[in-house]
């Protein structure tokens, strides 16, 4: 089982700042094999560019970055850039059809000279020799050199990415116990989960206690991004009273009390001591 972590800020350019502050500081450099391609790529921003490099200590070159990211996620990928472009994965020839997690290639004809991992919002992560580090750049500045992309992620991995990206759009939305389902000005924990998962054809019950009966059980040690995590609360009398979406590195996105939709750790503090179970609702 490969566990993955997804984006953890509302803006694609602020992930590192948020991760290094507050509750997330302890997980900023957690095990990189517990992440998805998008957020793992983003955590490598600022690492050194090194010709022939493919590691944290040794730095990365163009293809070395791709090789490292997908190797950590148990996807097989050749080491050389030309071979990566020829991989037996779906070839995306239209720039308008690229999706988060795709590897984009730039060059002439069938000869790539550079590449980047698409992270959404017209941004990609690439190892830049001219800037001597891993950077976030606009895909538009490379559009005229685009020769194709390879879709590495499975359909379920793509769904996990989009679940978290969608949930992030509501960060800061006020919490309202018993919020009416179908409106998005306020949420309670279970209406929030039901709303987000419904966007990807996963129909959940309205109440967290009932949501805990969906899908299949998964242990806390084997959580994957997109799993539902359940807790007791001070008012639930020992029964399940809260739900969130696991996003990896011991974090969840959820809504509860002051601040509304937010990120919280489930590895320490209140939510750790009130954890009950988890369910996997992505096939």
From TrEMBL:
Entry keyword annotation includes Signal: yes
Q: What are the entry keywords?
A: Hydrolase, Protease, Signal, Thiol protease
InterPro entries documented for this protein: NLP_P60_dom, Papain-like_cys_pep_sf, Peptidase_C40
**What range does the record give for the signal peptide?**
1-30
Pfam families, sorted: NLPC_P60 (PF00877)
Question: Per the UniProt record, which residue ranges are transmembrane?
Answer: none
Q: Which residues form the NlpC/P60 domain?
A: 31-153, 157-282
Which family does the record claim for this protein? Belongs to the peptidase C40 family.
What protein name does the entry list? C40 family peptidase
What is this organism's lineage?
Bacteria, Bacillati, Bacillota, Bacilli, Bacillales
């Amino acid at each position: 089982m490969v566990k993955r972590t997804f984006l953890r800020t509302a803006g694609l350019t602020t992930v590192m700042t948020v991760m290094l502050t507050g509750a997330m500081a302890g997980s900023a450099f957690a095990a990189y094999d517990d992440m998805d391609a998008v957020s793992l790529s983003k955590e490598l921003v600022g690492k050194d560019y090194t010709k022939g490099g493919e590691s944290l200590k040794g730095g990365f070159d163009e293809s070395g970055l791709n090789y490292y990211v997908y190797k950590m996620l148990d996807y097989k990928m050749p080491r050389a850039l030309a071979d990566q472009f020829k991989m037996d994965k779906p070839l995306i020839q239209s720039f308008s059809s690229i999706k988060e997690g795709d590897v984009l290639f730039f060059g002439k004809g069938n000869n790539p000279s550079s590449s980047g991992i698409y992270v959404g919002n017209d941004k990609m992560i690439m190892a830049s020799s001219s800037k001597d580090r891993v950077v976030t750049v606009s895909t538009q500045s490379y559009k005229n050199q685009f020769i194709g992309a390879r879709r590495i992620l499975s359909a379920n991995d793509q769904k996990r990415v989009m679940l978290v990206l969608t949930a992030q759009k509501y960060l800061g939305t006020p919490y309202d116990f018993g919020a009416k389902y179908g409106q998005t000005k306020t949420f309670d924990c279970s209406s929030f989960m039901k709303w987000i998962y419904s966007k990807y054809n996963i129909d959940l019950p309205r109440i967290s206690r009932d949501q805990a009966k969906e899908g299949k059980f998964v242990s806390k040690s084997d959580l994957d991004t997109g799993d539902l995590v359940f807790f007791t609360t001070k008012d639930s009398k020992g029964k399940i009273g809260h739900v969130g979406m696991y996003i990896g590195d011991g974090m969840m996105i959820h809504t509860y009390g002051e601040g509304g939709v937010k990120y919280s750790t489930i590895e320490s503090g209140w939510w750790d001591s009130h954890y009950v179970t988890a369910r996997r609702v992505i096939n």
